[in-house]
Amino acid sequence: MSEIIDEAFGKMEYDSSWVRIEKYTILGRQLDVRIVAQAYEGQEILEIQRKAFLEFQNRFSQLEQDIPDKLLEYYLNNYESISEMIEIPEKIDKDHINRDLIIKLIKVRTIYFTRKGQYGYLCDCAWEQEHGIAIIFTNNEISIDEQDVLI
């Protein structure tokens, strides 16, 4: 396994992409999160990925404030299809869900930086256990979709 010390990302190891593990407190939980700069074997980290990583670091506090509202909005807008996938307990049904509860339904596993400069969180998710969800940050906007949209 090869290693590099990147000027923005720091020490990274190659494992199907450039990867390192870092502790982050995300949405109120301290987690060991994978930082991933997408790359195929033999490819270096791109400048656009470095810029995205630095942007992420600069925007982190604001993202932490904005994500719960976006998650709640996504959950409510997709409630019917979500309720078809899982049996939703009363405490998190449409009438009882709130910002604090919605963030307990996801767990950030990876912060992923594409070769096009997009980035976002890849998350385990209570209602999409097979594929998870992605919280994608693009042009100061937050969107939520399936992980495949980002990776």
Question: Mind explaining what this structure looks like?
Answer:
It is a single chain. With 151 residues, the chain is α+β, with helices and mostly antiparallel strands. Helix content is 31%, strand content 36%. It has 4 helices and 8 strands; from the N terminus they run E-E-E-E-H-H-H-E-E-E-E-H. It has an 8-stranded mixed sheet. Strand 7 (133-138) and strand 8 (141-146) form a beta hairpin. The radius of gyration is 16 Å and the shape is elongated. The mean pLDDT is 94.
Blueprint (SSEs and pairs):
Layout lengths: L2 E4 L3 E5 L3 E9 L2 E9 L9 H31 L1 H7 L13 H5 L2 E8 L5 E7 L7 E6 L2 E6 H4 L1
Parallel strand pairs: 4-5
Antiparallel strand pairs: 1-2, 2-3, 3-4, 5-6, 6-7, 7-8
Briefly characterize the structure.
The chain has 151 residues and is an alpha+beta fold. Strand 2 (10-14) and strand 3 (18-26) form a beta hairpin. The protein has an 8-stranded mixed sheet with strand order 1-2-3-4-5-6-7-8.
Structural class, from helix and strand content?
Answer: alpha+beta
Q: Determine the strand fraction and express it as a percent band.
A: 35-45%
Described by strand count, sense and barrel closure, the largest sheet is: 8 strands, mixed
Mean pLDDT: 94
Task: Count the E strands.
Answer: 8
Low-confidence spans: pLDDT under 50, at least 5 residues?
A: none
Strand order, sheet with most strands: 1-2-3-4-5-6-7-8
Helix content: 25-40%
* First-to-last CA distance: 22 Å
**Radius of gyration based on Cα positions:** 16 Å
The backbone outline, from C-alpha atoms, is elongated
| Structure annotation, total helices | 4
The run of helices and strands is EEEEHHHEEEEH
